[in-house]
Amino acid sequence: MSATPVPATPVPHLRRSLRRFDIMAMGIAAVISFDVVGQIATGGGEALTWTAALALLFLLPYALLFAETGAAFPQEGGPYVWVRLAFGPLAAALTTLFYWVTNPVWLGGSLVFAAAGAFDTYVVHLGSGTVADYAFKLAFIWISILTAVVSLRRGKWITTAGAVAKVGLVLLFTGTAVVYGLRHGFDGLQHARTAPSTAGFLGLVPVLLFAYVGFEAPNAAGDEMHNPKRDVPVSIGVSGVVAAGCYLLPVLAILAVVPADKVTGIGGFLDATSLVFGVYGGFSGALTTTAAVLFVFALLTQGSAWMIVSDRMQAMAAADGTFFTRSLGAFHDRLGTPVRMNLVSGVTATLFMLAAMTLVHGDTAAVFDVVLTVAITTLLLSYLVIVPALYVLRRRYPHVPRPYTVPFGRAGFLGCAVLVHLWIVLGSFSALFPGVLEPLLGVGYDFHETWGVTRTTFEAFTLGTVVLLLAVGALGRALGAARDRRAAGTGGPAAAPAAGSAVR
Question: With a threshold of 0.90, does the pTM exceed it?
Fold first, then answer.
């Protein structure tokens, strides 16, 4: 058995641009999701309980697993390579498709709607469904895509700026909330019920899992890291701690100063920011506007970070012949980025944004909730395969050098993998079939009150998206394989690595 198995097509145009700080910043930019902070806070006092519990019972074992695997298998493509090694090309093709499509769906869904809502409320009025609204959303999507198109040695500074903006805004908001509470009292905490409940558990788990996953994402650019074997474990550890703090602190602050019935998913963070910034007197308006601009910038760079990594994964899948045509796996010979895949992501995000605005009838909050759930569903479903693949690699390739190992060896690795996978199974089912487990556990559930849309509309977006993706993935794999067989039969160059072709 090879000590360093690498099944994916090598890419000759890549430059090593990512050092430890860059990897940490990319992880923070990708994982900390301002658009879900308010969504978590809608769970009330027990949101704090479940956020802390999942940090210990999910985020910690999850980080241990991916720190070991990311350092041992640092090839370009990350999770795509891991699943292909463990389960073969078809499983890798479908898993990567779900992982990748989450990001243009999320970019064209909850990210752009949260950004537009913030800009409309606190910066410049856009109106809903107006030309200005459409123009803002299109600009947001395509600026995110263009920042993924530029070379990584330049693009990394954009995501780093986004990470700094996120941490800085969280610290400013939390500190100001403390001052506000000292002046006006922490009434929210006095009435918050932090005791965990079954209803809160089922409602919060999918959102929290979505918030905590993604620290392995920079591994998609593994061949562009200077020293992944040394830097990946440290980067995952540091960014994981920062992410846990950046969820717990603002959720705590929101619940402390905002009445429970006033916390909303789409505007929760900025609504609370506007309230607590009142302590700055005449400067409060300008500071709130500045915070809103930083909020929008942070969302944009979050989209950029995910486009940078997920497009590389999908490009590697295409280069291996598992996604329609190998030409989609081409990396630009000067920029070192998968430009064609970046453009496919931009078109996908645009189409999803237009579909959400057209098909989901309801207010902005309802649209936000539905499209966020679609993104949660597709991403968690990909981890149903990725997590078992990590253990298969641990067992199948024991002689691969592992600069970092999970405590207690293979038994510790297996225990972490089982625990993480059980959480993912529960979160995936709850997101895909809301209202199914609740009656079985004696919990009341009102579908329309929860989502603001009909079940038919919700299922058309969630189940319809999943079925469509399975069909697209299977078709892409079948067409790619058929094309390669035809080319092989005629002596053509189909097997030549498209990832190595020049794109100008």
Answer: no
What are the backbone angles phi and psi of residue 213, rounded to the nearest 5°? -85, 160
Among the listed residues 54, 74, 65, the one whose alpha carbon sits nearest the alpha carbon of residue 413: 65
Largest CA distance in the chain: 79
H or E segment to which residue 299 belongs: helix 284-319
Question: What pLDDT, on a 0 to 100 scale, did the predictor assign at position 1?
Answer: 44
Distance in angstroms (rounded) separating the CA atoms of residues 147 and 158: 7
Buried/exposed 1-34: b ≥16 CB within 10 Å, e otherwise: eeeeeeebbebebbeebbebebbbbbbbbbbbbb
Q: Which of 152, 26, 16, 11 is nearest to 81 (CA)?
A: 11
CB atoms within 10 A of CB 487: 16
pLDDT at res. 200: 79
- The tokens describing 500, both together, are 């190595």
Q: Residue 110's closest CA among 427, 379, 469, 472? A: 379
pLDDT of 498 reads 42
Asked whether the predicted pLDDT for residue 5 surpasses 70, the reply is no
Residue type, 244: A
267 band by pLDDT with thresholds 50, 70 and 90: low
- 105-111: average pLDDT: 84
The CA distances from residue 79 to 36, 70, 112, 285, in Å, are: 24, 9, 26, 44
Neighbour-count burial of 83, counting CB atoms closer than 10 A to its CB (0-12 exposed, 13-18 middle, 19+ buried):
buried
Q: How far apart are CA 284 and CA 275, in angstroms?
A: 9
C-beta of residue 80 within 8 angstroms of C-beta of residue 69: no
Contact 419, 57 (CB under 8 A): yes
Contact (CB, 8 A) for 329 and 320: yes
DSSP letter assigned to residue 9: P
195 burial type by CB count under 10 A (0-12 exposed, 13-18 middle, 19+ buried)? exposed
